[in-house]
């Protein structure tokens, strides 16, 4: 089944503020390299037969490339983002406008949430992270708007500040995750829901290997996540490695650059 992704070219990408432990403004980032790496990710999706739509990048919003944070779209309904840090604030309305202009039913959020950064939709439930960015009240707001059960999970390691830095869906029913990123209770929930999950180690998590995108057959994943790649192959997945090292300087990987549009309106 081809997927539909929304992406934003990193034309204004920089690391000029620090809102997560990966970001070091004094070290800077190479925008041209970031653009080339991002083009490689877009091409990887297109080669797999997925559809990529684009949103216009906005000057002065260097993190707008991280489209996953722009909204959560399930069943053709777009739940808007409301960013935790003011530096990214204007991205929320910019992404929401993209959906409004195209006729999607949208919900302007009352509560702080960073879209698919913290909400991962599986077939029957939506997994939702909290602890660093998205507020618990937003989990409830999303559940009411989308009509899908939302399962709250607590993130405890600031390096894994968004749910999508520590967990990804393999096929809508099973997941891969880094247990230490979660509270004890949330680890227990994950073990209960996904007894057959792929468990990643620290080395793979530290190169944002869990920030991957799977269509159920192919997994687009940071190339440096070598053990995780091997385990995915052992389980029969086709692994498509990508190099997004420049975007990782802002704390993002392939999934961060990708907002999935589920179900047309
Ligand atoms: N610099 C961005 C931030 O800290 C990175 C966002 C990464 N996106 C994601 N879906 N994890 O907000």
CATH class category: Alpha Beta
Strand residues, percent: 15-25%
Which regions have little confidence, pLDDT < 50, spanning 5+ residues?
A: none
What is the CATH homologous superfamily assignment? L-arginine/glycine Amidinotransferase, Chain A
Overall average residue pLDDT = 97
The beta-strand count equals 15
Describe the structure.
The chain has 265 residues and is α/β, with parallel strands linked by helices. The protein has one domain: L-arginine/glycine Amidinotransferase, Chain A (5-stranded Propeller). The protein is built from seven helices and 15 strands. The protein has a three-stranded mixed sheet with strand order 2-1-15, covered by helices on one side. Strands 3-4-5 form a three-stranded mixed sheet, with helices on both faces. A hairpin with a 2-residue loop joins β3 and β4. The radius of gyration is 17 Å and the shape is globular. The structure holds arginine. Arginine binds next to loops. This is Amidinotransferase. GO terms for molecular function: arginine deiminase activity. It comes from Nonomuraea cavernae.
What would a concise description of this structure say?
The chain has seven helices and 15 strands.
């Amino acid at each position: 089944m081809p997927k539909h992704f929304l992406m934003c070219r990193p034309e204004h990408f920089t690391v000029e503020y620090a809102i997560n432990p990966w970001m070091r403004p004094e070290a800077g980032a190479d925008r041209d390299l970031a653009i080339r790496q991002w083009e490689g990710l877009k091409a990887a999706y297109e080669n797999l037969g997925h559809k990529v739509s684009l949103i216009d990048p906005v000057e002065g919003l260097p993190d707008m490339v991280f489209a996953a944070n722009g909204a959560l779209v399930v069943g053709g309904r777009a739940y808007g983002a409301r960013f935790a840090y003011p530096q990214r604030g204007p991205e929320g309305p910019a992404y929401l406008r993209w959906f409004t202009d195209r006729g999607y039913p949208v919900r302007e959020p009352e509560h702080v949430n960073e879209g698919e950064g913290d909400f991962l939709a599986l077939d029957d439930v939506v997994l939702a992270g909290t602890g660093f960015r998205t507020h618990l009240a937003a989990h409830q707001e999303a559940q009411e708007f989308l009509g899908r059960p939302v399962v709250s999970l607590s993130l405890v390691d600031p390096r894994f500040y968004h749910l999508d830095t520590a967990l990804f869906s393999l096929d809508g029913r099973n997941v891969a995750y880094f247990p230490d990123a979660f509270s004890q209770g949330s680890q227990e929930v994950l073990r209960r829901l996904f007894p057959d999950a792929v468990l990643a180690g620290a080395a793979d998590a530290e190169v944002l290997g869990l920030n991957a995108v799977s269509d159920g057959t192919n997994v687009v994943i940071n190339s440096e996540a070598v053990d995780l790649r091997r385990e995915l192959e052992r389980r029969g997945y086709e692994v498509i490695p990508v190099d997004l090292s420049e975007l990782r300087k802002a704390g993002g990987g392939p999934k961060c650059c990708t907002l999935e549009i589920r179900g047309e309106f």
